[in-house]
Design goal:
The complex is a heterodimer of chains A (141) and B (108).
Chain A lengths: L7 H25 L11 H20 L7 H18 L2 H13 L3 H23 L6 H5 L1
Chain B lengths: L1 H23 L5 H19 L4 H15 L3 H9 L2 H26 L1
Helix pairs in contact in B: 1-2, 1-3, 2-3, 2-5, 4-5
Classes of the chains: A mainly alpha (141), B mainly alpha (108).
Amino acid sequence: MSKPRPTPAMVAGVAVGGALGACLRWSLDATTGAGTGPAGDFPWTTLAINVLGAFALAALPAVVPTPTAAQRASVLAVALGPGLLGGFTTMSAAAEQTRALVSAGSALGAGLYVLGTVLAAVAAVRLAGRFEPAPAGDELG
Amino acid sequence: MTVLLVALGAAIGAPLRFLAAHHFDGRAPWGTLAVNVLGSTALGLLSALSLSGSAMALWGTGLCGGFTTYSAFAVQAVGLGRVVGTAYAVATLTMCVLGAGLGFALGS
């Protein structure tokens, strides 16, 4: 579990990636009209964002090689993972939307939203895991 | 204009989460758990305050949204295995929704 100590470049990379991810989330909310309907509308957009982001984060090791030596690679990896995808997905909106569903009298909707998101996200992570490159040990033998 | 406020908030929130995860995520992702519960509570509070669109874009969509994460949560829950992963998911989701409720009540 030895993680490389975050360098200023990595922190900056996360900031830039996070800003881009959040803007992407905001523009999807804006184009789908999320949050503009009556309180208690089912939050399909946030559900889709969180499931898609979970899939992409799980698939990331297959796309961006795990950094071995090159510092540049680890900056890219954190800019895309904790940065772009961390900023794109959101737990706070999911929790607040659940609270709003309960408060709008839709306890069933709230339950379906929480369970639907987490089960779909877990399935997406497992699916993405199939694309991961085989561990080095397997290649050796 | 609004999009710049979202970007600014997330440019602060995402690195804060990254550093919290680096320092406090160990065998269990305590850092990410704390970040998600704290950010959900803060967003519940902000939602009760009927802020302007600009203020909500900066503090809510940007800062709280960029600070908290669902992608890392889901990947961690799967990586922790069936028993611990399920416990982690249930604990996170329960505490985040309760946090949003508490924050909303505090702000109302």
